[in-house]
Amino acid sequence: MRVILAEDSVLLRAGLARLLTDEGHEVVAEVGDAPALLAAVAADQPDVVVADVRMPPTHRDDGLRAALEIRDRWPAVGVLVLSQYVERRYAVELLTTRSDGVGYLLKDRVAEVGEFLDALDRVAAGRAAFDPEVVRQLLARTSHTDPLRRLTPREAEVLDRMGQGHTNAGIAAQLHVSQSAVEKHVNAIFDKLGLSHTTGYSRRVLAVLHYLGS
């Protein structure tokens, strides 16, 4: 796939570029600030952008703002944002734009090469990829405790993996159960969270995590 990297740490950026190149991907641009990221995407739309949340010029949420603009202007470009910590507001804001082709990973996850590459593949394929720790903290901090308490332990496990962006087949493989069993758990989750009438893939990620993060 074709990737643009946006990271102000020269060392991390170089490491990511080397990793992606070694895996057979094409790094079409490497930039260190948000304006340069937008200019690079405007010049040559990649399959995926990997961007730090906090970047120059302000070192606040410039990377996230650029990611949201990319989602708006070039919807076919997948966006995988990296963050040093779980920043709940940023995760929810990214989710509530669109849930397809979007991901949010902690930088520590980059060291888990297989997980990072899997997340990148999912985003490039138009799916979602959210760090398990991000999902767990969204679940832990939600104010909507009563509906969540109605979930069985297995339904909670399924919800955790749904939030990460896994398909029913992927969840079934991870939990060592049948796909039909996962489908039943998913339907039960939507019923208990009042999401049964929401349609499409957004019901799996956007609606659920937006509900949890609101």
From TrEMBL:
Gene3D superfamilies: 3.40.50.2300
Keywords linked to the UniProt accession: DNA-binding, Phosphoprotein, Transcription, Transcription regulation
InterPro entries documented for this protein: CheY-like_superfamily, NreC/VraR/RcsB-like_REC, Sig_transdc_resp-reg_receiver, Tscrpt_reg_LuxR_C, WalR-like
Positions where 4-aspartylphosphate occurs in the chain: 52
Superkingdom to which the source organism belongs: Bacteria
GO-annotated biological processes: phosphorelay signal transduction system; regulation of DNA-templated transcription
Domain HTH luxR-type as annotated: residue spans: 144-209
SMART domains reported in the protein's UniProt record: HTH_LUXR, REC
The protein's name: DNA-binding response regulator, NarL/FixJ family, contains REC and HTH domains
Organism: Asanoa hainanensis
